[in-house]
Amino acid sequence: MNQELPVRHRRSWAEPYKIKMVELLKNTTQEERLRAIEMAGYNTFLLRSEDVYIDLLTDSGTSAMSDVQWSGMMLGDEAYSGSANFYHLEENVRKYYGYPHVIPTHQGRGAEHLISKILIKTGDVVPGNMYFTTTRLHQELAGGTFEDVIVEEAHDPMSQAPFKGNVDIQKLENLIARVGASKIPYITIGATVNMAGGQPISMANMREVRNVAQRNGIRIILDATRAIENAFFIQQREEGYANKPVADILFEMCSLSDGATMSGKKDLLVNIGGFLAMRDEWIYNEALSLVVVYEGMHTYGGLAGRDMEAMARGIIEAVQDNHIRARVGQVEYLGHKLQEWGIPIVEPIGGHAVYLDAKRFLPHLKQNEYPAQMLAAQLYIEGGIRSMERGIVSAGRDQLTGEERHPRLELVRLTIPRRVYTQAHLDVTAEVIASLYDRRSEIPGLEMTYEPRYLRFFQARFKPKAN
Ligand code: PM9
Q1: Which residue's CA is the nearest one to ligand 1's atom 6?
Q2: pLDDT at site 3
Q3: Which of 70, 164, 248, 408 could pair with 155 in a Cys bridge, judged by C-beta atoms 3.0 to 4.6 Å apart?
Q4: Residues 6+ apart with CB under 8 A from 386
Q5: Closest ligand 1 atom, CA of 265?
Q6: Tens-digit pLDDT profile for residues 42-58
Q7: Mutational pocket test of ligand 1: of 266, 272, 355, the residue with most ligand atoms within 8 Å of the beta carbon
Q8: If you write DSSP's letter for every residue of 155-199 in order, what string do you get?
Q9: For residue 335, what pLDDT band results from cuts at 50, 70 and 90?
């Protein structure tokens, strides 16, 4: 936007908010950070947050809530059942996402757990536009196998395709022909696609998937975690949507699915919360039975009334065009800076994060030396910046063979929390990355010293390999 104009004639976007309360940050020395990362087994998840200067680990639950959301927290109706805040949440999910039935859950994976248990039988296959860690694990624990049907461009960090989150329709049709529609309880559609670099799916592609699914009697479950960011990309890039509000695009996207799992900790600007939403009465009744076992009554699902109120109010703020433009604009600001300096990142720049391409950043390391894991650790040592590995460690092991999966993307995610950091923080981040890039050839690989059974990236430990 506006990039071609001389700077003085540009009209830049600015954040549509001002700051009322701040949290002070601690500066640490490089020696202190080296000690901290060693204690954390070279895993940024295991650092103490007080030892971090700029925290780009995740945008999950790390957003700054507005005064309107915080005042809503004081109106928490903490009744065991029938909380007024639940009904407010239900009303806003119906209005903006369009699903008639809503069950709150403590966060996104609570919703994934319920839908996987309800719909998947042993031996089933669940296609999707690239795996997500918790989503795939719940599908596997329910007896299913995940099959990736994303377009090939998604695996290429340099492809400039505008919708790298699209489903490859041919791959989907081949899969249905191979295993049979009766073995496919639903298709998971991620919007945006986190593991591909925050890449969007187009409305046209969602419509095509819908047609294939309807022809074969297969449901579609949308992972709506960052669907508002996806709707923004549709507005910016897809023909026919330039003049549509993001809220309308979101509603149309959801209309092409049968239900959704949601982590409110991302798009919806809250520190905790999620929901499962659906059209089908039968699924709703099953979810009503199961939610009381795993989350709590269906009118709170593991959340306090105040959390549901904050999420209900967050929905309204999150779908505003000026909010989402500034949110994605911040991510693009950091990405453009790194591009200008020739630092290898996933392109086009994603919606919630900039992803460093560790394969090109550290070409001297093999994938089984965990280059992205080490790059994330080095970023912390260099400048106190916390990021997250999204490569071989996150991909884990094949459930049948026990072998490590080797994803084509080996990435470090610099995730921007919503409404938290300023442009100056992003400048510092880019500068730290640039100085690390200058001494990249000195960076050694890692070996794993502890591997947990599930979702190993959260708690695995490593040590540098001797040269
Ligand atoms: N995403 C993230 O940092 C949280 C930690 S990593 C497991 O990106 C999608 C697309 C997500 C997601 C979490 C969940 C699970 C589902 N889908 O963390 O359980 O990005 O609320 O949501 C993280 P919860």
Answers
A1: 133
A2: 59
A3: 408
A4: 44, 47, 52, 54, 55, 56, 57, 376, 379, 380
A5: 21
A6: 999 999 999 999 999 99
A7: 266
A8: G-TT---TTTT-B-HHHHHHHHHHH-GGG--EEEEESSBGGGTSB
A9: very high
